[in-house]
Design brief:
Keywords: Methyltransferase, Transferase. One of its GO terms (biological process) is methylation. Pfam families: Methyltransf_11 (PF08241). This is Class I SAM-dependent methyltransferase. By secondary structure, this protein is of the alpha/beta class. 41% of the residues lie in helices and 22% in strands. The chain contains nine helices and nine strands. β2 (72-77), α5 (80-88) and β3 (96-98) form a beta-alpha-beta unit. 40% of the residues are buried.
């Protein structure tokens, strides 16, 4: 069932679609760094089929295609206007589907690798998306996203970590958002107080975490210091 935050998000990105790249894409930002590392992993692990969940304007797939023109790719995007822009940039309309990451329209084990860049912090229940990514992947999933506990000044990071310890993931998220449960911003629409760290136990139930790293600067403690993380998890056999 759609909720108010989802409608706000759809309206925001429908209106901002033409400005999306200018607002969200920057050379050597966290997702670009994650893509550079992913490229090496794809070559090393010989992944042949890739599904990108939340394709947006096509950044990830266009990057991979530039270096691996023969890669068998597919994408799925929730916002029609963003999908159209990705196609206008050169992605095949037959390979970019319009759909919901919480209910991926593909059979089990359809793709060797399933990716998501900056998608999960826009979803009220990221576990639904992670479950679907694991279901349709035959070998591995790769996620690049926020770690809210390592984001901000030393004072704000410490405060968020203390709230997480005292009130848990859900409780701290409500407190941080003034009990609304999500943020509404001019630069990223609706997003939730998301941390990839909170979902590592879920990944470990069904997969082996091969790599987990900061995508925005060096840190000695990923949970307390890294604002953005990426993870490669290979499915257990």
């Amino acid at each position: 069932m759609k909720n108010n935050s989802e409608e706000i998000l759809k309206d925001y990105y429908s209106k901002k679609a033409n400005d999306y790249d200018k607002l969200q894409l920057h050379e050597n930002d966290e997702h670009h760094n994650a893509l550079k590392l992913l490229l090496g992993l794809i070559i090393n692990e010989d992944f042949r089929t890739v599904l990108d969940v939340g394709t947006g304007t096509g950044r990830a797939l266009l990057y991979l295609k530039n270096f691996l023109p023969d890669i068998n790719y597919r994408g799925i995007e929730f916002i029609p206007e963003l999908r159209e822009i990705s196609i206008s940039k050169g992605l095949s309309s037959e390979k970019i589907d319009l759909g919901d990451a919480r209910e991926l329209p593909y059979p089990n084990n359809s793709f060797e690798l399933v990716t998501a860049f900056g998608v999960l912090h826009h979803v009220a229940n990221p576990l639904l998306v992670i479950d679907e990514m694991l279901r349709v992947s035959s070998r591995a999933i790769y996620i690049s996203d926020h770690n809210i506990y390592g984001w901000g000044s030393t004072i704000t990071k410490t405060a968020k970590q203390l709230l997480r310890t005292a009130f848990g993931q859900k409780g701290s998220g409500l407190i941080l958002t003034g009990f609304r449960g999500y943020y509404i911003t001019d630069y990223d629409g609706v997003f939730y107080p998301f941390s990839l760290c909170d979902y590592l136990p879920k990944l470990q139930q069904h997969s082996n975490i091969e790599f987990l790293f900061s995508t925005k600067g060096h840190t000695t403690n990923l949970y307390t210091q890294a604002s953005h993380l990426a993870v490669l998890a290979t499915k257990k056999t």
